[in-house]
Write a structure and sequence with these properties.
The structure holds 2 protein chains of 2 kinds. By secondary structure, chain A is α+β, with helices and mostly antiparallel strands. Chain A contains 3 helices and 5 strands; from the N terminus they run βαααββββ. Chain A has helices at about 25-35, 45, 60-70, and strands at about 15-20, 85-90, 100-110, 115-125, 130-145. The termini of chain A are close together. The relative contact order of chain A is 0.24. Helix content of chain B is about 20%, strand content about 30%. Chain B contains 4 helices and 6 strands. Chain B has a 6-stranded antiparallel sheet with strand order 2-1-4-5-6-3. In chain B, strand 4 and strand 5 (about 130-140) form a beta hairpin. The two termini of chain B are about 20 Å apart. The mean pLDDT of chain B is about 90. The chains are: A alpha+beta, B alpha+beta. The interface between A and B is large, with 36 and 35 residues. Strand 2 (about 85-90) of chain A pairs antiparallel with strand 3 (about 95-100) of chain B, so a sheet runs across the interface.
Chain lengths: ~150, ~160
């Protein structure tokens, strides 16, 4: 039984929704299978690359984002399927042994004809020092409470 | 790899195809996207898809893993020219992507074929050693239905002067 429905999301509301840790072993483990580029695999190999240091694959960062939003509110929300990601900007690299904190802002909501509504969100990910690393905007489709 | 200058609009990578197996779908989800409807068949019945499906990020990560592997094999097609020293060209990170959607879920046993096509090449005034290559990436299942679509981009090294 969901707690949150489309009507519960307020336009203009900005809130910090949670944090997740980023470990070195996780970074390398993900990269070995899904993004085997030198700057995601090994500190030595990373030195001669554009980024110069070992950092997380952007695709790993988005899975951390997905985990964060699920734990903080999506698991209690009547979400319908996957979001549509309008834009993802990998602004700065995410280094090992850091953490990512997510701030969510609701930009817009839209009623649909099928018993659902859509919410336009901007999610920002910041590291431990408060520097923004990633920005994602997208649309989530959520059931209306009124359609129950 | 390939120098930025040797890239051409319309160049393609045959990224490859993969059959999505239940065990691997669940293993990825447990590590990287632990939603109950990606991990447990019974929980998935009550979930948004009505059955166990692959995490959309697994559908995307599978594309990425295959693409990096095949890119290194010089599988760009439709390039009119490839410099002999192209293997010295470095690839940089991606600044991001736009318009990512997963129109249809990927179910156990689906075979997904991925493709990538270059659609824009951008010189960078701020970083003259690098250019940006923008690509359209698509994944389709065995029924021809689209499961993945997005516009990605990557930094590519320019030929040294």
């Amino acid at each position: 039984m969901a707690k949150f429905y489309w009507e519960d999301f307020e336009v203009g509301k900005k809130e910090v929704i949670g944090s997740i840790a980023v470990g070195r072993d996780q970074i390398v483990g993900f990269a070995e299978n899904y993004d085997p580029q030198p700057f995601h695999l090994d500190e030595e190999l990373a030195k001669d690359t554009f980024l110069g240091r070992l950092c997380a694959s952007g695709w790993h960062v988005v899975t951390l984002f997905s985990q964060l939003i699920y734990e903080s509110y999506e698991k209690d929300t009547a979400i319908l399927g996957a979001p549509i990601i309008e834009e993802c900007r990998w602004m700065k690299p995410v280094f090992p042994d850091d953490s990512l904190t997510c701030e969510r802002e609701c930009l817009e909501t839209k009623s649909n004809d099928d018993g659902s509504g859509s919410c336009h969100f901007r999610w920002k990910l910041f590291d431990k020092a408060g520097e923004q690393k990633t920005e994602i905007t997208g649309w989530s489709k959520i059931k209306k409470r009124a359609s129950k | 790899m390939t120098w930025f200058e040797d890239m051409k609009i319309g160049a393609q990578i045959k990224v490859g195809a993969v059959v999505f197996q239940e065990e691997e779908m669940i293993a990825f989800a447990k590590l990287y996207d632990p939603r109950d409807y990606f991990i447990d068949k019974h929980a998935a019945i009550a979930g948004p898809y009505g059955k166990l499906v692959a995490s959309p990020w697994y559908v995307t990560a599978s594309w990425m893993g295959l693409m990096v592997k095949n890119r290194d094999k010089h599988l760009y097609e439709s390039l009119s020219h490839q410099s002999p020293d192209g293997d010295q060209a470095r690839i940089g990170p991606s600044p991001g992507f736009v318009d990512l959607s997963w129109k249809n879920p990927v179910e156990i046993g689906d075979e997904i074929t991925y493709s990538l096509e270059v659609f824009k090449l951008i010189e960078l005034k701020s970083r003259p050693q690098w250019g940006i290559c923008r690509n359209l990436s698509i994944g389709t299942n065995q029924h021809g239905k689209e499961v993945l679509r997005f516009f990605g981009q990557v930094l590519m090294e320019r030929k040294p002067k």
